[in-house]
Amino acid sequence: MIKIYSAVFAGIAMFAGTVCFASDIAREVSGDGGDNFFEVSIGLGAGQNNRVKKEDEHNDSYGVGIGLGWEYRWKGFFSEAIQDSYSGLNLGYELWQNDNWRLDLIGMNLHGSVSNDDEILPGMTEEERNDRLVRRDTITLNGGVRATYYWKDNIIQFRLESDYSQNYAGAQSSLLVGRAWQIRNWNIHGLTGLQWNSRKRNEYLWNVSPLEATEKFPEYQASSSLNYSFEVGATYPISEHWLSRSKIVAFTIDDSVSESPLTNNDNVGGVISTSIVYVF
């Protein structure tokens, strides 16, 4: 199984969960970067209740992971793999901007995992079906738009995307509001947000069909969901090119997701992370 969660391909999947897209605008709220820049980060994080998908009987809601992330912008083009974010890998182009607004085209938002052994066939044993259920595809390949509004030290961002892969996993959207405060050399930011997933997306991720159902994972029909997230973080300049970032994130998990037999049945979760960033 190949995992393409949040900022990377290096074991940061435990950060993902349903943490909305709050981390995506944390850098902009804290005032880092510019029109053209490249930064890479490596960080350590710990989470409680943030791993929604249970892999086995002994899976709990705690995890620790190391992750790599980056953000690159050049003449309107951008590539983003934001550490401890749910948004996966983003490739896109800045369509338009002025002093207060920016409109981005998200050409590719890649998130989730791919499995080559998730097909459930008639005649399989309960154990075989259980194994296939927790290893099934969760990959989404999305395209859409992102609109960001800036006013003094405040930021508002709206994002709407739809899956265009052969899975056609429906749509997702988010609305985020953030603010920054400068305290000596520290830049403190706060974010709050909403993330909506369509019924079709949650069916793809969390449904259990009659053919798939087992005693451990009974039949389940998901609906659309609305999750909330809250983040407080701090950025400190170590030197001209090096930064330190830390954050605490809390989030909710809608009943449509938490009641699925494929989850830990938790309605809240959180992540604490710290990272070192190099800005070129």
Structural class of the helices, strands and pairings? Answer: mainly beta
**Lateral arrangement of strands in the main beta sheet:** 2-3-4-5-6-8-9-10-11-12-13-14
Our estimate of the beta-strand percent is over 45%
Helical coverage, percent range = under 10%
Query: What is the name of the CATH architecture?
Result: Beta Barrel
Distance between the termini: 34 Å
Q: CATH homologous superfamily, by name?
A: Nucleoside-specific channel-forming protein, Tsx-like
Distinct helical segment count = 4
Give the CATH level 1 class: Mainly Beta
Oligomer: single chain
Order of helices and strands: EHEEEEEEHEEEEHEEHE
Average per-residue pLDDT, rounded, comes to 82
Count of domains: 1
Q: Tally of extended strands?
A: 14
Task: Give me the secondary-structure topology.
Layout (H helix, E strand, L loop, with lengths): L1 E2 L22 H4 L7 E12 L13 E13 L2 E5 L7 E9 L3 E11 L1 E2 L11 H9 L5 E12 L2 E10 L7 E13 L2 E12 L1 H8 L18 E13 L4 E11 L2 H4 L9 E12 L1
Antiparallel strand pairs: 1-7, 2-3, 2-14, 3-4, 4-5, 5-6, 6-8, 8-9, 9-10, 10-11, 11-12, 12-13, 13-14
Which key terms come to mind for this protein?
about 280 residues, mainly beta, Outer membrane phospholipase (ompla), Chain C, 4 helices, about 50% strand, about 10% helix, two-stranded antiparallel sheet, globular, twelve-stranded antiparallel beta barrel, single chain
Structure description:
This protein has 280 residues and is mostly beta strands. The chain has one domain: Outer membrane phospholipase (ompla), Chain C (Beta Barrel), CATH 2.40.230.20. 9% of the residues lie in helices and 49% in strands. It contains four helices and 14 strands. The protein has helices spanning 26-29, 126-134, 199-206, 255-258; strands spanning 2-3, 37-48, 62-74, 77-81, 89-97, 101-111, 113-114, 140-151, 154-163, 171-183, 186-197, 225-237, 242-252, 268-279. The longest helix is centred in the middle third of the chain and has 9 residues, at 126-134. The chain is globular. Mean pLDDT is 82; it is low at 1-23. It is found in: Cell outer membrane. Its main location: membrane. Belongs to the MipA/OmpV family. It holds the Pfam family MipA.
